[in-house]
Amino acid sequence: MFASLGHFTKQPCPFLPDCNRVYCHFSHIPQPPPAKRRKTENYAPQHLPFHSSTQPTSPARMTRPAAAGISGTPSTPSATGARAGQRAASHPTTSPARTPQKSTVSSARPPQNLIPTGPPVVPPDVRSHSPAKLRQLIATKFHAEFVRIYTPHALASDLTLATVHALRQESAVHAASGPATYKNLAANTLTRLKRRAPACDALDIGIDGEYLPPGASPAEGTGPDLGNAATYPVRAQNAARYVLTVAQMEQMGYPIQVTDVATVERAEEDEGKIKPCDRCGREYTVKAVLREGDLVACVYHHGKIRVVKVDGQKQRSYSCCDKLPGDVGCTSGPHVFKEETIAELERRAPFVQAPPASSRAARGVAQVRDLVALDCEMCYTTAGLELARLTVLDGRDGAAVLDELVLPRGGAVIDLNTRFSGIVTLRDAKYDFKGIMEKFFEFVDGGTIIVGQSLLYPHSGGLPYRHSLRNLAHRYLKKFIQDSAEGHDSAEDARACLELLALKIRKGPDFGIINTAVAV
């Protein structure tokens, strides 16, 4: 026989006291009698008036009222009731009327007009690239600095000002950074806030990037928030002092005089010629039709060489894969070439001069702008590096007056350079090079100021070194551009140029120049 599991050992045997089993599965222990249920009396709830007092109160004594008879006649009090009556006579239950006093007991419900004056609470955001705990810590530190800056003048008129500005400051830092740069940008912003002097009046306020010291001239006009840059419009008369002279343009490598070119070679004539590859440096034969092997013939690094510290030592490596110079490339593609000298470029497409400003009325063009920002995207063809997209922004409001794809002048497209240009196809292109040039001169003539890049902010090492637009936007505008995996955006780059010019106008001619011999 198998042993019993004992599941019924606590259950009373149903055959007691006449159970005849030798081994019964149930319990034969006598069970205690069931407890008597006590009769409970129902009491009607009594609604007593609430009186709050500042004096300490003793705990109230509760007396049980006598049960009423069924017939409604008063019942005879018992001895216990008599003693209770004697105590009630000596200590009357009715207290003398008191004068109502103002209650000091705080209500459980918070007041409706609660003013947030402490550190802000960063709202949760599932799309945030940084931890919520870190963002809250940064906002709290910003709040402490704004309290210091705004005490006592600004906070006297608005108690929530430090809280609101701390939240706006953290939000601006978060929007202008990424997961790898958030802490550094927040630390730099906090350092600048710590250097600010206390506000001299209620109007001496503003978050970092928008704050203007007393006496500084504000930006012209109003418009979208550009962070550290000025707001639109950017007027030509204010930018005229920063237009480069002819000598400066020659020093920068810009073409000054248009030379006469008898003939212009066609792009097809480069087919079969040997050219050095712009990516890997190897020589190759230019082809208009690429075979399968030609599409991966070039092995190169698409990133630039940078200097980083490894174990305390400076080391040069590629930004794309961290490999050392001389290592095998990390990317493959077709061989391409480009021509950079003025003579080579003019041989391809002779330089032209814009129509003079005096011819606006004669040409019947009423939409010529006084100041524009221009940026291009390029693609590789059998004729070298050619224009694939042209973007022109109006300096008055930053709106695009021209943003079009451009077909190559005749050479076959080898590589659209999508990693950098962002162009996937030229299927929607409506203009060729000649057509886009004619369209361009509807908005630009000899009196138009064209905004470029890296000119007003010379490199500390002097020429030929120049800052990249990405570096300038990060340093002065606290923006990250050209950071998308889908490639660059010429409209974004042109807008960054406008904002850099606006910032230069706002800060003055010495802003952004550090140990350089180039005068602007």
Automatic annotation (TrEMBL):
What is the protein name stated in its UniProt record?
Answer: Exonuclease domain-containing protein
**Keywords for this protein:** Exonuclease, Hydrolase, Nuclease, Nucleus
Which residue ranges have biased composition labelled Polar residues?
51-60, 91-110
Gene3D superfamilies, A to Z:
Ribonuclease H-like superfamily/Ribonuclease H (3.30.420.10)
Region of interest: Disordered: 46-128
Question: Sorted alphabetically, which SMART domains does this protein's record hold?
Answer: EXOIII
Domain Exonuclease spans what residues?
370-510
Q: Which SUPFAM superfamilies match?
A: Ribonuclease H-like
Principal subcellular localisation of the protein: nucleus
The protein's organism comes out as: Jimgerdemannia flammicorona
Instruction: Tell me a GO cellular component.
Output: nucleus
By sequence similarity, the record places it as follows: Belongs to the REXO1/REXO3 family.
- What does the record give under GO molecular function? exonuclease activity; nucleic acid binding
Subcellular location(s) per record: Nucleus
